[in-house]
Amino acid sequence: MGRMFRRIGRSLAALVLLVLAGLAALVRIEVHPAQSVAAERPTQPVAVVQDASGASADMQPTGEPAPAAASAPVATGDAPVLMMPVSGVAAADLYDSWGDPRGGGERTHTGIDIMAPGGTLVVAAASGTIEKLYRSEGGGGITLYQRSDDGKWSFYYAHLGGYAPGITEGMHVEAGDSIAYVGDTGNAAPGNHHLHFAVSAMQSDEGWWQGTPINPYPLLAEGRSGG
User: Fold this and answer.
1) 219: phi > 0 → left, psi -120 to 50 → alpha, else beta; which?
2) CA distance linking residue 175 with residue 195, whole number of Å
3) CA pair distance 210, 152, nearest whole angstrom
4) What CA–CA distance (Å, rounded) separates 64 from 55?
5) Average pLDDT per block of 10 residues along the chain, 227 residues long
6) In this structure, how many other beta carbons lie within 10 angstroms of the beta carbon of residue 123?
């Protein structure tokens, strides 16, 4: 009787081993090495700033302000001569996207998009003061607001990949100085690298988030560009 139980035990053990071997053959464990991520151009860290005014172009839910009303035209005859704000871009490369529909037609484009590879140098379009460094997750992303020397104009650079080294609020820059890099931050589609560049006419008592937008395309492409 004992021998019979031992034979049954050995048979059961062999059966268990066969079942385990079959399961092992069905199970495949794959180990993948860590995937490397291509590093983009190093950029300055950008603090996320919240502003209670809600009036800035990139703090509005629409992402941009409305164009200047037809009943309140802005004279551009005294607008400063501008340099091309993106290195390597010629006036002939520009497309006038001012007024194009955005957000499914809910708003209009109040600047121009200057296409360039990510990391391309962005330079100051004119001399002036860096008035505000601001990050808007759902709007212009990493942005920079610059006020002209005479205080009458604001230049807005958006969807940046980062700021140039040493750029701080309150510093003075000359036309052509390095200020940032082209990126795709904010509501630009991933990989859609470009600079959103806008110009606003400013009153003496208006803050960096205010002003009346004007079309920058003629200032850059129709004989008023110094770049």
Assistant:
1) alpha
2) 17
3) 12
4) 10
5) 56 56 43 30 39 33 39 57 94 77 61 94 97 90 96 96 98 98 93 94 93 89 57
6) 20
